[in-house]
Structures are given as C-alpha cells and as structure tokens.
Fold this sequence. Notes:
The protein is an alpha+beta fold. It has 3 helices and 3 strands; from the N terminus they run E-H-H-E-E-H.
Amino acid sequence: MTLLTIEEAAQFLRLTRRTLYQRADIPRVRYGHRLMFVKEDLEKWIRMRSEGQEVSSDKHVLSPEPVDAGSSNVYHRNPLFVLSRHR
C-alpha cells in the first residue's frame, strides 16, 4: 500500500489540490488531520471511471429505504420539519 500526500495525488491524477478537496467521489483516507490517498485505490478509481462504472467513496452500502420508514413516532427538533405522513 502506497500512501500519497495531497500534492502527490494531485500530480498523479493531474488535478488541482482544490479539486481533490471538493470531489467526494475520489477515494481518500484521513490520517490524523492529514488527507492521504492510497495509490492503489486511485488506480482502481481511474479504471472504474474509464469503464463507465460508478465508484462510491463510501465503503458501506446504503439502503434505499429510510431508517425511520416503519416508525410512526418520528421526532424532529424543528416543528416546521414535520412530514405529512408523521402527523
């Protein structure tokens, strides 16, 4: 596993540092307060994009259904944020 700094990753991807900070789809790792990139993950990300596949930076699979879909007792701190199905 090869860790790259933001400058090295920007040079490797031929992007600016600003773009790396803004693009959430580019795989990254936090090492303390530093933003680091795994070179192998970046290579995989490039390959997936060139094949036209979507790449998620999040390792967890999100369920399409909301967590509170079955619950009728939903509380929100802001009373204006009450959905019609929860009244």
